[in-house]
């Protein structure tokens, strides 16, 4: 059986990410976990938490072996300043970005099979004069791809038409070409990555009540409906635009494979 390698970034060194990384190493896993972090940070946090974890330097190029409880393999990246738990420090922002860059490169080189990211504090990264709106956009830029964010729970998949934007900018960002591109990618990846032969996609409107036929906004009439109609002509199974308070009800979810929300906080609270 092929053993997968997972690159893991703990995220903000002053936050809870290092704690979580240490705690998940208290059990066996059927894959190899490679943490991209400062080993001294992890050792300090283990001592603070009273955890007995054997921290080892990872060799990403060796054959993968499964994770054994009580061990942690780390690919070292040095902090600029020693962390103070609960206290953010702009001087460690570049460390956070470097861990993400290395994790992405490991996957692009096919050394690792996936990336799991710990929580970061976007504001402190930006205060360090490093433009950063989120993991989604960062990995897309590094990989040269087009980001489509989809989160999945046991029986619910939610994708986003826009990601980390101020609410005032969402309407202008939603265009017909954008929607057609995002829905086409979503359709393709549900087929190829989730083995859903004929994906059924429910699409939210932008405005309350999906615009009430233009009385509560024109985005549905002028942008969303034309985009959906064009894709339906290509054979895609699309429902909508639906009001968000309708789209996430059980009868709709039961008959669809994914819901596409127009913006971040329209879709993700349902997860």
Would you give an account of this structure?
By secondary structure, the chain is α/β, with parallel strands linked by helices. It folds into two domains: 5-143, Isopropylmalate Dehydrogenase; 150-270, Isopropylmalate Dehydrogenase (3-Layer(aba) Sandwich), CATH 3.40.718. 38% of the residues lie in helices and 17% in strands. It has helices at residues 17-24, 39-49, 93-108, 122-127, 135-143, 167-173, 176-194, 219-232, 244-247, 250-254, 264-267, and strands at 5-9, 32-37, 54-57, 71-76, 114-117, 150-152, 157-160, 200-204, 237-242, 258-261. The protein has a five-stranded parallel beta sheet with strand order 3-4-2-1-5. Strand 8 (200-204), helix 8 and strand 9 (237-242) form a beta-alpha-beta unit. Helix 3 packs across helix 5 and helix 7 crosses helix 8 (219-232). The longest helix has 19 residues, at 176-194. The protein is elongated. The two termini are 32 Å apart.
